[in-house]
């Protein structure tokens, strides 16, 4: 294997080049992802490749960062999507509710909305905010990781009507089994890097026994390829997946990025490989054997 260390904007990214293709290690600051587990996922991609897909494309959702201004320009950008995910939990809860109300008015009733709080609320706050969102006329597809732990998810699920999704609190088979035993969530969100690879993520999804979707960690097209491979290999067609995230990076390493057409991302005939000139542009130490 060869290792390529890059900096794209403020992100440090390591790409592994192996006999089966390319893998990516690109942890996000503050997001729980064991570096060793992420490396294992990249080694799998580079050395073993991906499982055979059972579908040729997946539907993806639009993404609204916490800092985005809720206005007609945003609505125009999201017009291609039938589902959008909104980051919440970093501001006053009343502001989150107001932003969601404005977004619902701009998008109209045909677009589903989900929120992601990254475990930032306690149970009481989560129940209060999710109730306020419903009272504001915004029906949520689900609330992703509104609280931090599986036990808190189970408690919250008994208090609110909005479906709940688990993400950060599930990292192992044992976590997935605990989620299932506690009847703590309605949906499981999978990410390849923190789960240790596509095959490990498939095993975790099976153990959880819940509808599963795939979301990115704002990777380059190399990392998005692994997430797409996972979404394409899930036994059941997933809900819209969070794979339309290349705009959250200031650059990419492939000549033809993995971008959706409207809200559909197709499995390519061959998985992407970096362009040499882009590797050189973003390299910080050069490749090592």
Commentary on this structure:
By secondary structure, the chain is an alpha/beta fold. The protein has a single domain (51-272), classed as Enolase-like C-terminal domain (TIM Barrel, Alpha-Beta Barrel), CATH 3.20.20. The protein is 35% helix and 19% strand. It has helices at residues 35-48, 72-77, 93-107, 123-135, 150-157, 173-181, 192-195, 198-208, 221-233, 276-282, and strands spanning 2-8, 11-18, 21-25, 57-59, 62-64, 83-87, 112-116, 140-144, 164-166, 187-190, 212-214, 264-266. The protein has a seven-stranded parallel sheet. Strands 1-2-3 form a three-stranded antiparallel sheet. Helix 3 runs parallel beside helix 4 and helix 4 (123-135) packs across helix 5 (150-157). The chain is globular and about 55 Å long. The model has no long low-confidence stretch (mean pLDDT 96).
Beta-strand proportion = 15-25%
Q: Stretches where pLDDT falls below 50 for ≥5 residues?
A: none
Write down the Rg.
19 Å
Query: How many structural units, i.e. domains?
Result: 1
Tell me briefly what this model is.
By secondary structure, the protein is α/β, with parallel strands linked by helices. It has helices spanning 35-48, 72-77, 93-107, 123-135, 150-157, 173-181, 192-195, 198-208, 221-233, 276-282, and strands spanning 2-8, 11-18, 21-25, 57-59, 62-64, 83-87, 112-116, 140-144, 164-166, 187-190, 212-214, 264-266. The longest helix has 15 residues, at 93-107.
List descriptors.
single chain; 289 residues; TIM Barrel; seven-stranded parallel β-sheet; three-stranded antiparallel β-sheet; 12 strands; 35% helix; 19% strand
């Amino acid at each position: 294997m060869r290792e390529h260390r890059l900096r794209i904007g403020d992100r440090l990214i390591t790409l592994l080049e192996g006999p089966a293709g390319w893998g990516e290690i690109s942890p996000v600051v503050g997001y729980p992802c064991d570096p060793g587990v992420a490396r294992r996922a990249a080694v799998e991609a580079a050395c073993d490749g991906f499982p055979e897909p059972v579908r040729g494309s997946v539907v993806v959702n639009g993404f609204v960062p916490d800092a985005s201004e809720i206005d007609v320009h945003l609505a125009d950008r999201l017009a291609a999507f039938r589902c959008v995910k909104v980051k919440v939990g970093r501001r006053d809860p009343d502001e989150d509710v107001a932003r969601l109300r404005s977004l619902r008015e701009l998008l109209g009733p045909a677009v589903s909305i989900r929120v992601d709080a990254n475990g930032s609320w306690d149970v009481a706050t989560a129940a209060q905010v999710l109730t306020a969102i419903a009272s504001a006329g915004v029906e949520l597809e689900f609330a992703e990781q509104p609280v931090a732990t599986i036990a808190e998810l189970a408690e919250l699920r008994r208090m609110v009507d909005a479906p709940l999704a688990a993400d950060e609190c599930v990292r192992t088979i044992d976590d997935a089994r605990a989620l299932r035993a506690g009847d703590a969530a309605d949906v499981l969100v999978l990410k390849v890097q923190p789960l240790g690879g596509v095959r490990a993520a498939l095993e975790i999804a099976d153990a959880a026994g819940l509808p599963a979707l795939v979301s990115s960690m704002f990777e380059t097209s190399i990392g998005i390829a692994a997430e797409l491979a996972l979404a394409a290999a899930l036994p059941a067609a997933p809900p819209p997946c969070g794979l339309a995230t290349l705009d959250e990076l200031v650059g990419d390493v492939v000549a033809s990025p993995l971008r959706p057409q409207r809200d559909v991302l197709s499995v390519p005939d061959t998985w992407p490989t970096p362009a040499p000139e882009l590797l050189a542009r973003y390299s910080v130490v050069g490749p090592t054997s």
